[in-house]
Write a structure and sequence with these properties.
Elements lengths: L1 H5 L7 H26 L3 H26 L1 H26 L8 H21 L7 H22 L1 H11 L16
Helix pairs in contact: 2-4, 3-4, 5-6
Length: 181
C-alpha cells in the first residue's frame, strides 16, 4: 500500500506504518483511562505514570534503536504505552470497583477487525497491489467486511442504526430492536 500511495522510495516505511497503527490502537485505550484519573482528581498519578513510562521509553528506545533501527523506537513507544495502560488500569480498578475496562463493543470491534484482516490478507494473496484499482478494491473489501461483520454481531449498532432510521422513509426496512445488554 505504501508503495502504491507514495512510490517505491518509501517501501522501507511500510513496517513503521504497521507499528504506528498498533501504537494508536493502544493509545486510544490509555487516553480514556488517563482522563478518568484526571476526572477522579488525581493528576499527580498521571504525572508519575508518565514520568516512569517516559524513562522506560527512552532506555528501551535506545536499546531497540541500536538493535532494530527506526522500528525499535516505535516498538519501545508501544511498550511504554502498554506500561501506561497497565498502570492506569490498575489505578482505575482500585478506585472504581466493578469497572469494566474491556467492554463488549470494544471486543466486537476487535473481532470484526480480525475477521477483516484475515479476509483481506487472504484476498491479497490472489490480488497483489499493483495499482490504485487493486488498492481500492482491497480497501473496499476490508471496509465492507468490517461493517458487515460488526452489523451481524453488534446488537447495539443495529439498535443505533434502527433508532436513526425510525421515522424516516426507510423505516419499513428496519427490524424491531432486540437488545441483550
Amino acid at each position: 500500500m505504501v508503495i502504491t500511495v507514495y512510490g517505491g522510495e518509501f517501501e522501507a516505511a511500510a513496517p513503521l506504518l504497521v507499528v504506528l497503527a498498533i501504537y494508536r490502537i493502544i493509545s486510544t485505550q490509555t487516553t480514556v483511562l488517563r482522563k478518568s484519573i484526571n476526572g477522579l482528581d488525581h493528576p499527580s498519578v498521571n504525572m508519575r505514570i508518565s514520568a516512569i513510562a517516559l524513562s522506560f521509553n527512552i532506555i528501551l528506545g535506545i536499546i531497540l534503536t541500536i538493535r532494530f533501527g527506526a522500528v525499535g523506537v516505535i516498538i519501545a513507544t508501544i511498550f511504554a504505552e502498554c506500561l501506561i495502560y497497565v498502570s492506569t488500569s490498575y489505578f482505575i480498578k482500585q478506585k472504581i470497583h466493578g469497572v469494566t475496562l474491556v467492554s463488549r463493543p470494544l471486543l466486537e470491534q476487535i473481532g470484526a477487525g480480525l475477521i477483516m484482516f484475515v479476509t483481506v490478507s487472504g484476498i491479497h494473496g490472489f490480488i497483489p497491489v499493483q495499482s490504485w484499482v487493486d488498492l481500492s478494491l482491497l480497501l473496499t473489501i476490508g471496509a465492507g467486511t468490517y461493517g458487515f461483520v460488526l452489523l451481524l454481531i453488534s446488537d447495539r449498532l443495529r439498535y443505533t442504526i434502527g433508532s436513526i432510521l425510525r421515522g424516516s422513509r426507510l423505516e419499513q426496512f428496519v427490524p424491531k430492536p432486540v437488545l441483550r445488554w
